[in-house]
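Dataset card, provenance and construction

Sequences and ligand SMILES were collected as paired inputs. For each pair, a complete structure of the chain with the small molecule in place was predicted and serialized as C-alpha cells. The example below shows a pair involving flavin mononucleotide. Curators did not alter the output after generation; any descriptive sentences attached to a record were derived from the structure itself.
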Amino acid sequence: MNYLIISGNPKGGGLCQDVTEEALRGAKDGGASAGTLLVEKLERCHVCGEGWGSCREQHKCAFEKDGFGAAQDTVRKADQLCFITPVYWGEMAESLKSFFDRLRRCEFGQNGVLSGKQILLVASPGGSGNGALSCLEQMDRFCRHTGAVIFDYIGINRWNNDYKKKAVYSAARAMTEGRKAGTTL
Ligand SMILES: Cc1cc2nc3c(=O)[nH]c(=O)nc-3n(C[C@H](O)[C@H](O)[C@H](O)COP(=O)(O)O)c2cc1C
C-alpha cells in the first residue's frame, strides 16, 4: 500500500507534528510505504474565467506549474491517505484549504484521483480545544465532493492526546493492514 499524509501544519514541532509521526508510524507498522505531502508553498485557486477554468474539463489546473501538478500526481499515486491539520479558527489550516480548493475543482466526482480511496481525518485544535468538529466537517465535505471514503474522524487536543495519539496510530495501522470502512468487528 502507498499511504500518503497530507498535512496543513506549518510547524516543525508541537502537537500536530507529534500526531503526524503517530500516523506515519501506524502506517509503516501496517506494512505501507508512507510519505508526507506538505502544501504550504502552493498558491490559492485563481478562480479562472467566470468560475471555472481548465480544471472542469481537463482536470488540470491552469497554474499547475507552481507545484500543484506534482502534488496532484502524488495524490494520484497514493492508495490510502490521511489528512492532518492544526485547527485554525475552527477550520483546517489555510494552506490545506487552498490546496483542497484547487484539488476539488480538478477531481470532483466519482472518477477523480481520490474516488474510492480510504482517508483518515485528523484535526488538532490547540488553545481552547474548540473547532475540531467544524474542521472535521470541512474535511468531510471535501471527501464527499471527491468521492473519497472516510475511514475515521479523530479530534486530538492538549488534554486528550495521551489516548488520542494511540487512536491515530491504531487507525493508521488498521487501515493500512486492510480494514475497510463499514466492516463490523
Ligand atoms: C491562527 C490560529 C487560529 C487558531 N484557532 C484555534 C481554534 O479555533 N481552536 C483551537 O483550539 N485552537 C486554535 N489554534 C491553536 C492551534 O490549533 C494549535 O496551535 C495546533 O492545532 C496544535 O498545536 P501545535 O501548535 O502544538 O501543533 C489556533 C492557532 C492559530 C495560529
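Derived descriptions for this record:
Strands lie at 2-7, 33-38, 80-86, 118-124, 149-155.
The chain is about 40% helix and 20% strand.
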